[in-house]
Amino acid sequence: MSVVKSVGEKIDEQELAKIFRDEGMSNYFVVYLRLITSCQLQKEADFYQNFLDGGKSMVEFCKTVCRCYVIVLAVFLRIYTFLVKR
């Protein structure tokens, strides 16, 4: 989370590129953005429902896209714990 907060501050492009090229950090950002997107989709489910195929509910769609909330949340918590210990 500290990396996310530091993006708006003084950080040179090389350091930012190094952070984004790191596989662990890259995966962290993907999971983080998927969770944010999933929350937004579910919050505005009535609007976005028309974009879904197959008659799935928004919750079913988000579970499919995120594979499984339990796994995603476990990864998120593990990464967060790793970052806090740094």
Write up what this structure looks like.
74% of the residues lie in helices and 0% in strands. It has 86 residues and is an all-alpha fold. The protein has a single domain, classed as 3 helical TM bundles of succinate and fumarate reductases. Helix 3 (23-43) packs antiparallel against helix 5 (58-65) and helix 3 packs across helix 6. 5% of the residues are buried.
Determine the fraction of residues in helical runs and give it as a percent range.
Answer: over 70%
* Number of extended strands: 0
Mean pLDDT: 76
Ranges where pLDDT stays below 50 over 5 or more residues in a row are: none
Report the biggest beta sheet as strand number plus sense, adding barrel if it closes.
Answer: none
The CATH C-level name is Mainly Alpha
